[in-house]
TrEMBL record:
UniProt feature, compositional bias: Basic residues: 321-330
Record's protein name: Fic family protein
Membrane-spanning ranges: none
One Pfam family linked to the record: Fic
Location of the Fido domain: 100-265
Region of interest: Disordered: 301-330
Originating species: Actinomadura meridiana
PANTHER family for the chain: FIDO DOMAIN-CONTAINING PROTEIN, FIDO DOMAIN-CONTAINING PROTEIN DDB_G0283145
């Protein structure tokens, strides 16, 4: 897996000049944005399906009989993810050049959790533990035995963690004997969850922060799918015990999957199946292609991750069928 990922990353840089800017490949980034907002909140128990997430984010329509808290969870996460993508590729003037800062971690938590907090604040939180602020409660040990530090140590522990992240950005400790990059990322992701700096939302913020790190390093963001929840939790528990291998492999596969969203559209043959976002053009928008697929007018299939896939050949055939005039009736 690591070798395939390295090869694909080299291809992205050498043949295509790295990740495309969201303004240059908006449909592909939007596709990732929808999937990330859906799956990352679903890992925490949110019940909105992908189509409901798309309608909420694209049209502001709260379809379905879900609670306001669930809609706000998705909306908050999506706003934070948009901010992450933008900051990763075009940092604001206030960014100091480091790979990550404590202020950015707090900003991500504030954006992701404020909409939820507005309708359902954490019942045990005091007024100083609102979104963007560190916890002032101790956390009970998790079911597997890992115990986060007492709350008074959180600022210092997070500073130490930020230091480790910045070392990764500087390439420190990298040699032929170093662990593969996905395993180093796995250790960092797991260490953040061990610090557990906030009273709520640490899982969502941890995945958003991981994606900020990845995109700043020139890698695609990752999506842990909701069907991978058990494997993800097991891998985190193994990392708690000092073995980041399973979590590293899961991250590597997620990087590889999203990498193909950028590379495959450029190298795929006419008949190769790719995400609909890769087939968007001046004539057909992403919603138009998805509607054609759902109605059976475009040859396509929907994968287990909810993503519709088709081919350039199928889109060409759909275009011809639209333009072909029906014979006149005598």
């Amino acid at each position: 897996m690591y070798q395939r990922l390295d090869k694909a990353l080299a291809e992205l840089r050498q043949r295509f000049g790295g990740l495309p800017d969201p303004r240059e490949a908006m449909a592909i980034w939007d596709d990732i944005w929808h999937l990330e907002a859906h799956n990352s909140t679903a890992l925490e128990g949110n019940t909105l399906v992908l189509r409901e997430v798309e309608l909420l984010l694209d049209q502001g329509r709260a379809v379905g009989a879900k609670s306001l808290k669930e809609y706000n969870e998705v909306r908050g996460y999506a706003d934070a993810a948009r901010w992450v993508y933008q900051q990763a590729l075009e940092p604001g003037d206030w960014h100091d050049g480091r790979l990550l800062t404590v202020g950015e971690v707090r900003q991500i938590h504030h954006m992701a959790m404020t909409p939820v907090w507005d309708v359902a604040p954490h019942p045990d939180a005091n007024e100083r533990e609102s979104p963007g602020n560190f916890r002032e409660h101790d956390i009970q040990p998790f079911s597997a035995g890992m115990a986060p530090p007492v709350w008074t140590l959180v600022p210092a522990r997070l500073d130490d963690w930020i230091g480790q992240v910045c070392l990764l950005g500087e390439g420190a400790g990298t040699s032929e004997d170093s662990p593969p990059l996905p395993e180093r990322l796995a250790r960092l992701h797991n260490s953040f969850e061990q610090v557990h700096p906030f009273i709520d939302g640490n899982g969502r913020v941890g995945r958003l922060v991981l994606n900020l790190i990845l995109v700043r390093l020139g890698y695609p963001p990752v999506i842990i799918l909701k069907r991978q929840r058990d494997a993800y939790l097991t891998a985190m528990q193994r990392a708690d015990a000092g073995d980041p291998g399973a979590l590293g492999e899961l991250i590597a596969r997620a990087m590889y999957d999203n990498l193909n969203r950028f590379i495959v559209p450029n190298v795929a043959g006419l008949a190769r199946m790719v995400p609909l976002a890769a087939l968007v053009g001046e004539e057909f928008s992403l919603p138009a292609l998805r509607q054609a697929a759902q109605r059976g007018r475009l040859e396509a299939f929907q994968g287990p991750d909810g993503t519709w896939r088709s081919s350039r050949k199928a889109v060409d055939a759909y275009r011809e069928s639209r333009h072909r005039r029906k014979p006149r009736q005598g």
